[in-house]
Amino acid sequence: MIKAKGASGEATSPAAIALRRSQFLLGAARARQFPADSGWEVAVAGRSNAGKSSAINVITGLRGLARISKTPGRTREINFFQIDEERRLVDLPGYGYARVPVAVREAWRRLIEDYFRGRQCLRGVIVVMDCRHPLTEFDQQMLQWCGHARLPVHLLLTKADKLSRGAAMAVLHQVRGQLSKVYKENEDATVQLFSALKRSGVAEAHEVLARWMEL
Ligand code: GDP
Fold it and tell me: By the 8 A CB rule, do 66 and 53 touch?
């Protein structure tokens, strides 16, 4: 997991400043443990090892914030981080789909479906994907749920430092093309390249969060 660096030279947009105040609120293994459905929420999803924790750490500017979601007992929970009294970032559990037992997968499905079903405060979903393996079965499932609920989505193609500029741009265009099959042009569905290692694409991610949560 890549950690965010210290405070020097950090972005100073209102969103960056607000996100840096994020704190762990609670982990929920079932729907009745979710916090009250009020204010603004943005969920972050990604199959395991996609780079979701690293992205959350770099986007919030908080060293090790998302490590909480990786501690034993929390990996299958939905973890809520409070940005301020009205706003939350929600870390949805991921999995590596190939070796997951059916029962675990079904429990995951139920929990996430419970979360998506009628969560009024949910303003959008960020789906983190390794740019070398975009649109896995996991990602397609997330996109389907978001599409059904007509939720705004933002696809974060991370680990962009692992590809040449040209190859990364090709992935960006390909994924944008796929997204346009699910979402119409006037809908809020965007894609970006990101690197937690190089800290590139952070401002773009902040803009999305600022727009969705009025930060
Ligand atoms: P998660 O399971 O989706 O939360 O993934 P992690 O954030 O733990 O990252 C999985 C692995 O990918 C770790 O070894 C990270 O160091 C690495 N990683 C994450 N983001 C990047 C990135 O932007 N660039 C590179 N090169 N490696 C990354």
Answer: yes
